[in-house]
Every structure is written in structure tokens, then in C-alpha cells.
Amino acid sequence: MTQYGEQVPDHLLIKIEHRDDPVSAVSEDDARRRSVAYPRLMWGAPVFGSAEEVDGRWRILSLIGNRPQGTRDGLGSHFRRLLSETPDTAETAVERKEYEAAIRLLDWEVVNDLTVNGRRYRIIRAQPFIRMGPDGPEPPRPTDPDPRPVGKGRATGSAGSQMEGFVIDPGASTGLSDGILRMELVPAIYKSAGVLPDEVREDSRRALVTHPNVVLLPVGFTLGEYVDGTWRPRSFSMEPTPGAARELASFTFEDIVPHENASFEEIRAAYNRAIEEFEAPTTDEFEVKGVRCRVTRVESFIRVGADGPETPRPSDWDPEPPPELHFQQLRAEGRMPDLE
Questions:
Q1: Does position 340 have pLDDT exceeding 60, yes or no?
Q2: Taking the model in full, what pTM does it have?
Q3: How far apart are CA 310 and CA 312, in angstroms?
């Protein structure tokens, strides 16, 4: 066992700070009550994003993808934007060449770590989970910020993503409830023997060693539905506020298709009618065409080690090749014309 003496490395810290201001006191009480009412943690599929290292800390650029390659493509688009914003002058020639090289690399190769113009970038992996109780998934808490509180009408603006710009800092102080939750999540692994492939469980155990700490990410919200005695996702989108999640209750594609052989024009007309007639629910639990729905609170954490946040695991589902490599494969199979 490694001994650090009095100096514990930052990446191993869980620093709990007593906060006695009224807002923190109410939030802690909410968290305590919900941990009792919704004691079971249910993990969802991992999500992926990109981050950059700034002044020794990793800052999230985006965290929205369910496939690592889609996130790599997004990072390539980020470099394309930076390239377009960099003037084409003699002074910026080296900077532009690095952006161009990074774009080519991501277009052709599976890359999870790279350095561009002296700054490190990484594809990161996060683990979402929800709390479950006897009555189903945890709804929003009274202390969760919401620009359109329960009982109000349609949201008038977007709160934006709380993930973008979030600093992954394991040494930052946290409240008592979050600190206890982090300690609970540190040893958490996939355990479903016989259900999950062996490599998934092995990667999960390995992560305890390579990335031994966890950082909680901003809370998100989605929509669940109760069908055939089971709660399941109605939407796989994660929104930054409960109000934005209520907007997901509008309709699904199946709701608006008038009949099996509907033409595109009929579907478009039905979609436009649905948009005009839709009114967002004013509660966190409601029915849509007889189906019980609930706005559901989604928490997430990311594992961290001495070198920063965890990258995609070898066993993570990653079926897509990089775009240029994919195009090359399609041309070789005769499914895409050769470029002149």
C-alpha cells in the first residue's frame, strides 16, 4: 500500500467542507432525504466527451456522445473552428499547421489523447446514474435550479449546458452529502456476472487502479415512462434543467405518424400540427396519451487518476472508424465513388 504521509496527491483527495449557509443547509437536507427515499443507484450507459487541460486542470469542452468516435469527430470540428478563427499570416503559420495536423490525425486515426499548440486534449468517459426508490426514479429536487419552475408555462430560453466549461477538480471542496456519495462511488464497478461480457467487468476493475478517484458532474434531467410495470427512458436526451426536460414530453415520432404508409408531406403536416398544439406539462409527473411519465434526475461521475480524467475503455462500444478511414473502406467496397 502506498504511503503519502501528510501530503496526499490532489487526484486522491475528497475534501469535505462544512457549509452552514441557509442554501447549503437546505440542499444537504434534500440530499439526505432523497438518499433514504431513493436508495438504489442504477447505472446507465457511459457517455463521452472532450476536455482540454488549462493551468493544470482539465476543463470539459462537451459531454454529449454515446460513442467515442462521435466525440472524436466533435473534437475535430473544434479544431476546424479554431483554424478558421486563426488569421492566415506568417506569424500564425505554425499554429495553423498544428491545427491542420490535428484535424488530419483525427480524420484518420483512433486518438484519445493529443497535444495541439502546447495544450493537451483528451476524449473522456463519464458514468451517468439515477436513484431508484419503491415508487420509481428520483424526480427533481426542490433545490435544483429551474428557470421554469413547476406550474409555469413553456420555457422562454435555454439554460445551456452546465457541462461545457466544467473544471474536473478532485481536490475542490464539497459538501457532506456529495463527499459521502463520492466515497461510495470510488469502489463502484460493473458486477453483473453472466450479463455483461468479461472484458467489460475487467476494464471496470482495472479503472479502480488507474483512476482511483471520482468527481461528480453537474446534474442533468431526462424523461422516463412507466410501461408494462417497468420504468424506462422516454427520451435519451439529457437536459440541464427540469423545465427543459418537461419539453421532451411533446411527442415521439410514433405519436405523429398518421398511418403506416403516410407520405412525407402527411408526416410533415402532422408534425407541424403537433408543434402548434403542444403545451409543456406543468408538473414533474404527468401522462402522455395514457402513459405515466416522470421528469427524472440524472447524476454523473467521471473517474480521475494522476494524469487526469479517464479515457474510453477498450471494451466501450465504439463501432465507427474515423471518417476518412471509413470513406476509404466504402470506396474499396465500391459503395462510394472514388474522388478525382
A1: no
A2: 0.86
A3: 7
